[in-house]
Design brief:
The protein is an alpha+beta fold. It folds into 2 domains: 54 residues, no CATH class; 151 residues, Nucleoside Triphosphate Pyrophosphohydrolase. 23% of the residues lie in helices and 34% in strands. The chain is built from 5 helices and 11 strands, in the order E-E-E-E-E-E-H-E-E-H-E-E-E-H-H-H. Strands 5, 6, 7, 8, 9, 10 and 11 form a 7-stranded mixed sheet that branches. Strands 1, 2, 3 and 4 form a 4-stranded antiparallel sheet that branches. A hairpin with a 3-residue loop joins strand 2 and strand 3.
Length: 211
């Protein structure tokens, strides 16, 4: 990192950069639902320890029915949300891990089939982001998917993953209003809906088959 001393802040570019640090090998601390590792880091003369929850690459999918003008979302219990806010029955996008050797696009299609019971007829890669880079190496790639919401079942998920999802539909205007009102706290959902509100041209191109 080694940032040169400046007497005051100056203009800069919004871009992530390679850090000039030395990172030691992973020291396993625990291996539960996700591995938990410790690292020793050297930045010049500075030396510090960081503990990281290892998640890796994941996908999230904002499923849209353009004919009925509805999103397909899911409800699922999340212990972390339950402990943080007392509202563990949270609203989510379709989402899941990218399996080894699997592309992000293939993972997005698979997760749609598993969590809302339908495969997308079109898929648009939106952007990738780090939800909580201070504590985990999770990197999410967001997709917009076009689906037929009339074929979505009331219950989905994989029993062998102890996953029980409850798909539901919501009008696009209602979903955007709910985010504006602060009705949901899930960053994956909020960022996807905000992107949707800011990109009508890209969405229209996907719907019209021009992507």
């Amino acid at each position: 990192m080694n940032v040169p001393f400046q007497p005051h802040a100056v203009d800069g570019a919004i871009e992530d950069r390679v850090a000039d640090v030395a990172v030691g090998p992973a020291q396993p601390l625990a291996d539960g639902f996700r591995p938990y590792d410790r690292f020793e880091v050297r930045d010049g003369s500075a030396h510090f320890t960081r503990d990281i929850l290892r998640v890796g690459d994941v996908v999230a999918v904002l499923a849209l029915d353009p004919v009925r003008e509805r999103f397909v979302l899911i409800r699922q219990f999340r212990l972390a949300a339950h402990l943080a806010t007392g509202r563990g029955d949270i609203v989510e996008l379709v989402a899941g891990r990218v399996d080894e050797g699997e592309s992000a696009e293939a993972a997005a299609r698979r997760e749609c089939r598993e969590e809302i019971g339908v495969a997308p007829r079109a898929l648009l890669r939106v952007f990738s982001y780090l939800p909580t880079p201070g504590v985990t190496d999770e990197r999410c790639t967001l997709f917009l998917a076009l689906v037929d919401s009339t074929k979505v079942p009331a219950h989905a998920g994989l029993a062998d993953e102890t996953e029980a999802t409850h798909p539901f539909t919501v009008p696009v205007t209602d979903a955007l209003a709910a985010v504006e009102a602060g009705a949901a706290g899930n960053l994956f959902l909020i960022s996807a809906l905000q992107w949707y509100a800011l990109n009508p041209a890209r969405i229209a191109s996907l719907i019209e088959g021009r992507t």
